[in-house]
Write a structure and sequence with these properties.
Elements (H helix, E strand, L loop, with lengths): L1 H34 L11 H30 L3 H31 L4
Helix pairs in contact: 1-2, 2-3
């Protein structure tokens, strides 16, 4: 039973990683759509800024999915080495997400209200 739960947890982590990949693909497509002028953006916001903000929001979401997958994978096979790797991954992804969110919020504040 324990082996089955571990296998299912690893499978779920793989599914979540696939979702993160799908989010990145969709984000890239949506950003390209906005960047080339086909997507609707606020008239007060320059198109490149709108595209950058859109991509930043979606990449932040993808990072959260990746972190969830890493946590599940480590929970399934916890060793001290795996836990140390997870801790490093959490720190790196948290720092990336922090700066990404800060940049997005900063860019949003700089834009005039429409």
């Amino acid at each position: 039973m324990d082996v089955l739960i571990k296998q299912e947890t690893v499978l779920l982590a793989s599914v979540i990683e696939a979702i993160a990949g799908l989010v990145v693909i969709l984000a890239s497509l949506a950003t390209a759509w906005v960047a080339v002028g086909l997507g609707r953006v606020s008239p007060a916001m320059p198109r490149p800024v709108a595209a950058r903000l859109l991509l930043g929001r979606w990449l932040s979401l993808a990072l959260e999915f990746e972190l969830a997958a890493d946590i599940l994978r480590t929970a399934a096979t916890p060793s001290w080495n795996e836990i140390a790797q997870l801790a490093a991954i959490i720190v790196i992804r948290t720092v990336l997400n922090f700066f990404l969110e800060r940049d997005v919020a900063s860019a949003e504040r700089r834009q005039p209200a429409s």
